[in-house]
Amino acid sequence: MRIFIFILSLCITTNLLSYGTPAKPTTIRSNLAPIAQTHDLRLDELHELFKTLNIKVEKTYAAMNAYAQKHWLRKPGQERWHMETSEHQSQADKVIQIIRLLGMIEQLDPTIENPDYAFVLGATVYRMRTRTQHLLELVEKGQFKPKKIIFLTGERPLDPTQEPETLIMDKKFIRADWKYSGPIPKNESQAAELIWDQLPKPDCIKNIPVMFVSTPMQNKNGKVVRPTTPDTIQTWLKTSPTPGSIVAFSNNPYVLYQHETMKPLLIKAGWFKKGGQLETVGSGSSENIELAPLLDNIARYIYSILQVQHAEQEVRSSK
C-alpha cells in the first residue's frame, strides 16, 4: 500500500446518487430531472432489460445475478476493451432506452456542494483525466468545493494499446507551462499522479490536500489480478478516515455500479451509521455503446446490489 498526500491549490460549490444521512440512500438525480432509484424500482427496470433481450428469468436479483454472472461477465483478467461483440448487439437501441431510465446515460453532478472527501476513481488514463476534469470544471464554476481530494487507484500495469505514451503526453490535456523530465508511468497509480500534475487547474484551487492511495496487485484464487474499486476503498479505510460526506467521480454508464460496489465496505465500517454519506457522479455516456462491456457492467451492478443487501443484513444481525 502506498499513500501520498500533497497540498495543492483548489477553490469553491455544486445533481446524482447518494447514500447515508441525511440524503436518501437510493436517490439518483441527473442534470435534467430526478429519477427514483430504490432497489425495488431498479428490479423492475433490470427485469425489463432481460425481457427485451428475450431472456426468461425470474424477477429477483438472485435469479438475474445467476444468469448475468454466467453469460455476461467478462473472463477473469480480461478488460472491457478486450471483450468480443455481444450476440445482443443488434438490440443496443432498445437496451439504451432502459439504461437511460436507470440513470446510466446522462451526466450526473453532485448535490453535496462541500463534501469532506472527493474521490477520483481509478481507471484508464483517458478516463481518469475526464473524471478529474469533471471535478475541476465544477470547482471552476463555483459549484463544488471539497475539503480533500483522494485518488483511489491500483498498480494495474498500463495497457500499451489503450494507454500509449502518446496519450499520456498528449498536449491537449497538459497545461502550457508544464515541464517533466521523469519516467513515463508504468501503472495506473503512477499515471494518476502525473495526470493531476499535468492538467490545467482553476486559479481558485488552493490549500486543498490531495491524497494518492495506491493499492497493489491482488492475489485472488491463485492468480495475480488488478485491484478493484472495493480493494481501493479497503486500502483507504486502513488510513482511519473520519466518517463524513464523500462525492466519488466516475463516468457513465458505470456510475451506478461503482456506487453500489463501494457501499458494502462502508456499511460494514459503520460509515453511514456514524453520519457519513456517499454520492457518486460522472460525465455522460455516448449512446453508441458496445453491448458486451455494458452487459458486463450490468452483471457487476446486479451482483453489487446483492452485496449491499448482504452487508446491511450482516450489520442488522450483529446488533
Give a short synopsis of this structure.
Helix content is 37%, strand content 18%.
Strand and helix layout:
Layout: E1 2-8, E2 17-20, E3 27-29, E4 34-36, H1 39-52, H2 61-71, H3 92-102, E5 117-121, H4 125-140, E6 149-154, H5 165-168, H6 188-198, E7 208-215, E8 218-220, E9 223-225, H7 229-237, E10 245-251, H8 255-268, E11 277-283, H9 291-317
Parallel strand pairs: 5-6, 5-10, 6-7, 10-11
Antiparallel strand pairs: 1-7, 2-3, 2-11, 3-4, 8-9
Task: Give an overview of the whole structure.
With 319 residues, the protein is an alpha/beta fold. The protein has one domain. It is 37% helix and 18% strand. The chain contains nine helices and eleven strands. The protein has a nine-stranded mixed beta sheet with strand order 1-7-6-5-10-11-2-3-4, sandwiched between helices.
Shape: globular
* Structural class by secondary-structure content: alpha/beta
**DSSP strand (E) fraction?**
15-25%
Total number of β-strand segments? 11
> What is the first-to-last residue Cα distance?
32 Å
Oligomer: single chain
Query: What value does the average pLDDT take?
Result: 86
Gyration radius (Cα, Å) is: 19 Å
The stretches of 5 or more residues where confidence is low (pLDDT under 50) are 5-16, 21-37
Order of neighbouring strands in the sheet with most strands: 1-7-6-5-10-11-2-3-4
Largest sheet: 9 strands, mixed
Please count the helical segments.
9
How many structural domains does the protein architecture include?
Answer: 1
